[in-house]
Amino acid sequence: MKKVTYAELASMLSAYIDGELTPEETALLKKHLATNPELAQELVELQSLKRVIQKKTMVPESIGFWTRLSIRMEQQQSDSTSLFPFPRKYLPAVTAIGGIFLVLFITVAVMQYKPITDYLAKQSDQVQQVYEEQKASLQGSITQLFSKIDRNQVLQFAMFGTIPMDAQAGTILQVNEDEQKGYKIEVGKKQRPVNLVTVSDLYREIRATDLQKSKLDSLFDLGQQQIRTAFLMKDDSMMLVDPNITQLNQVMLAGISSYLEAEQRVRFEKYLEIKRAPFAFAASQKPHKGKDALIEMKKPRGRATFIGFTHDATFPELQFNVEELRQHLREVEADQREAIIAVESIKRRFATRPDVERTIYDAPVRVHVREDRASIVINLQGRWESPVPPELTTVARKRPDGPTRFQVRSPMPFGDPLMMMDSLLQNLDESKVLNLRVDGDDHGIRIFIGDSLIKEEVFTRPPTQLKGKTQYFPSGRKIYMDSLMNQINQKKARLINRHKEEQE
Amino acid sequence: METPSGVYMDESGQQPKNMATQAIAHVIETPLREKSDEVLISLFQGGEKGAYRYLVDRYQRRVRNLLYSIFNEPDLIDDIAQEVFIKAYEALPNFRFQSSFYTWLYRIAVNKCRDELRRRKVRRILSLHALPESVEKEIGSKMVVHPVDSEMQHLISSALQTLPEKFRVPIVLKEIEGFSYEEIADIMQCEIGTVKSRLFRARAMLRKTLKPLLEEQ
């Protein structure tokens, strides 16, 4: 047998640790390893190197990669082969459903002229004709879902988070605050009748002055602009949603509230209650000046992140330059009349989705499709930075189901009511302490949590009716309330601190 | 329910069960997504171009990872990865099933890497000035999530960057992508013996560069 040099043996080590030596080579190397410590040391080092390199982390998933890729491919090969964003097998099925989806194809066709024209030509001459007629007007093809929204509908959105989509089909779009997960946007048939509200109705109820009316009108106009650019349709039936829209109704309500006098705010609160709006005000938060809401809403936003969803995919992060987008929308506005036809069909499409559920990527967006509604749940926590300061979104809060969350009905003890109150506060489930509403009557004290709180209401009953307790409030109820609010505020401060500590 | 302090919790006070959210978390996969590479390619070649999307979804991360290991430039990898997948899309009608799809795809990716490295070399030679900002960023280049590199990650990446391309590619394919010598030879279009010797030399160079790190291990 030929004598093997050290260099030759050393060069075999690399293949050895990869398991790529022949059995003979392995046996030979092992024999030398047992007797040659220098070689053995070299092996140890190589193995260590292998381990180190293998520790290199994987690059994370690129969300929206396919979308970006397909956009680029479309740019590169508009006249070559077809590239549907969905399997071709769906096409015949969709056409079979009927004329409803006709225009939908046309919007797809705008993106991929030739192949679809070919496809459609084969299907029907009529389709071809419609396509030719519509082609020019649908070019560009990002259109607004709600181009015709009026002030009343903006108010409707502010109060209920709903926008009517298709009166005939009874479809609405609804934005909901979801208990813990974030926000939910739903498209589908309305579950229960929505109370109609009008701006003039509201002005009458709150007895708005002319000055207030003009301010509120401009607030509604801004809201209108926001809604119009927040729900878009792109070519191939993709719906684009600006996740920040989920906070618009709270911002709007806070904005309205900030223009009102205390008495009017109570009226407004009542109006919300009568109309069964799902929001109430946190009276512990002072309303912000109206100009804040307006200024924040007017601020240029630069890039905005949209969520796109088609019938078979979700793209959680699509970025647009808002100003460019608005410019584009203004340009295509002239074509809106034609585009509406397409949009109408898409609306129906969203209202007649197949019964499937899905989750795409490990993204904080969950798409859920049931028989008659599709919902997107967006977890906004730490994901999207809202352009609106949190103070504006926390003034109006989701009203809990039912009249109260907690109810305390116990006779006033003979001790210090504040001590009792404190003990109650200590024992409340702190995670639910958002707003406190304290009410006194001759039976005792009731505490409402998570419901609306209007300070004025609390004073409706004189504390003298709290038998035997007046001596604790020598200068009247105000001290009582102030101390109580003080307690509550301290409690809140403790909660905030604890949350901060937990986060740290 | 009564708590020690006498706090009553009425029905509506109970924590609402988040049924909807739980249901939403349920995953239903579309049938195409589950199909094998071969089936998807056959569908694609049969005219169902939509099948390509699932191949992209399946391999984009691995391809991007390869590019990331080769270039270590997070901003660049999505661009090159897109080019790789466009090239593959154009070539897929002629795919003959003689190798697996992913070695074929890697071959395209490796060739793209070589082109890119060559282009840079030429540019370096031609110009002493700083290069102008590359092509306007594609939509969403900001969307790329940058991998968090610890110091060790940084050292490994830098060490890999010091290797010439012909050594860098096989070591990445071997250690990070886990290919066999035969597969690497297939991807790089060379002999197995070449792979063997390049890996040996690559390791020798890396051992020198990463010596301090290895001593810590």
Your description of this structure?
The complex is a heterodimer of chains A (504) and B (217). Chain A has 504 residues and is α+β, with helices and mostly antiparallel strands. Chain A has 20 helices and 16 strands. Chain A has helices spanning 6-17, 23-35, 37-54, 65-76, 90-97, 102-111, 113-123, 125-138, 151-160, 199-206, 210-230, 248-258, 262-274, 290-298, 322-333, 336-351, 390-394, 417-427, 455-458, 477-503; strands at residues 142-144, 162-166, 171-178, 182-189, 231-234, 238-241, 279-281, 303-309, 314-321, 357-358, 365-369, 373-378, 396-398, 406-407, 436-441, 444-449. A 6-stranded antiparallel sheet of chain A has the order 2-3-4-12-11-10. In chain A, a hairpin with a 3-residue loop joins strand 11 and strand 12. Chain B is mainly α and 217 residues long. Chain B has helices spanning 19-24, 31-34, 37-45, 52-71, 74-91, 101-126, 151-162, 165-176, 181-188, 192-209, 211-216, and one strand at residues 8-9. In chain B, helix 4 packs across helix 5 (74-91), helix 4 (52-71) crosses helix 6 (101-126) and helix 5 (74-91) packs across helix 6. The longest helix of chain B is centred in the middle third of the chain and has 26 residues, at 101-126. Residues 1-30 and 124-149 of chain B have low confidence and may be disordered. Strand 14 (406-407) of chain A pairs antiparallel with strand 1 of chain B.
